[in-house]
Amino acid sequence: MMPLLNVERLSKSFGTHQVLKTIDLTVSAGDVTCIVGPSGSGKSTLLRCLNYLEVPTSGVIYLEGEPVGVRWRGNKLFRMSFNELSVQRQKMGMVFQGFHLFPHKTALENIIEAPMIVKGKSRQQVTEEALLLLDKVGLRNRADYYPRQLSGGQQQRVAIARSLAMQPTLMLFDEPTSALDPELVGEVLAVMRQLAEEGMTMVVVTHEMSFARDVADHLVFMDSGVIVEAGHPRDVLSNPQHSRTRSFLARVL
Ligand code: ADP
Ligand code: MG
C-alpha cells in the first residue's frame, strides 16, 4: 500500500547552516509518529517542510503519492501555484506550541472561519460541524467564550478542533503541550490520544515521552538534522542502539 506521507532525501539549509540532512521518513495511514530530539535538532523545520511552510533545499515530500508544493514536468520539479499549494495544505492540519487563535473571535467563530471561507460551506452547516468538534474536545459549553476567557489547555483544544474542521488527512503537532502549565498538559494529550484511537494519522513533535511510549506506532529520534534512530517506541526507548539516543533518553526519561 502507498504510504500516506513519504519524505525522500529531504534537506534544508538556512544560508550555510544545513538544518536537515537527507531525511527519509514514511508514515502510513492511521499511524502516529512521534518525533523527539534535543532543541535545535531540526524537528520544527522538518514539520514545517512537510506542509511547505519552509521550502526544502532538496528532496521531495509526497502526500498520498503527490509531491508537496511542486509538480513534476517531465523529469523536472516546478513550484506549484499558491492556489494548488493551498489545496494541499488543507489536507494537513497543524497545531503549534502557541495556540494562535483569533483573539477577537469566540471558540466557535475560530472553528468555522476557515471552512466557511475556504470550503465555501454555509454558516449553518459549519456551525453544526463545529459544535460536534467542540463536543469531541470536551468544550461544547465553551462555544461562545473568547480565547482570553479560556485556559491554555482549553485554547489548545479549540485549536485542535479548528484544525479538524478542515477535515485534514494528516495532523501535524509541534510541541502542542510545551507552552502549557503542567496541570493542563493531560487534557490536551487526552484529546490527541482519542484522535489517534479514531485512526487519525498524526506526526507529533513532543517531549512527552509517556505519550510517545503509549500512543506512537513509530518513534523517531532526531539529532543535528538527521534521524539517528527510529522504530517502535518500545524498542527505541528500552533498547536504544545509538549512544546519542541513549544520552538523550537518559536526560528526558
Ligand atoms: P527544533 O524544533 O528541533 O528545536 P528547529 O527546527 O527549530 O529545531 O531549528 C533547527 C536549527 O535551524 C536551529 O539551529 C535553528 O536556529 C535553525 N533555524 C530554524 N529556523 C530558521 C530560520 N528561519 N532561519 C535560520 N535558521 C533557522
Ligand atoms: Mg521546535
From TrEMBL:
SMART domains: AAA (SM00382)
Residue stretches making up the ABC transporter domain: 5-249
Coiled-coil stretches: none
Membrane topology field: Peripheral membrane protein
GO molecular function: ABC-type amino acid transporter activity; ATP binding; ATP hydrolysis activity
Compartment(s) where it occurs, according to its Swiss-Prot or TrEMBL record: Cell membrane
GO CC term (a single one): plasma membrane
Keyword Membrane part of the UniProt annotation: yes
Primary location class: membrane
Pfam families hit by this protein: ABC_tran
Domain of life: Bacteria
Record key words, sorted: Amino-acid transport, ATP-binding, Cell membrane, Membrane, Nucleotide-binding, Transport
CDD domains in the cross-refs: ABC_HisP_GlnQ (cd03262)
Family per similarity comment: Belongs to the ABC transporter superfamily.
Official protein name in the record: ATP-binding cassette domain-containing protein
Naturally occurring in which organism (per UniProt): Rhizobium lusitanum
Lineage, highest ranks first: Bacteria, Pseudomonadati, Pseudomonadota, Alphaproteobacteria, Hyphomicrobiales
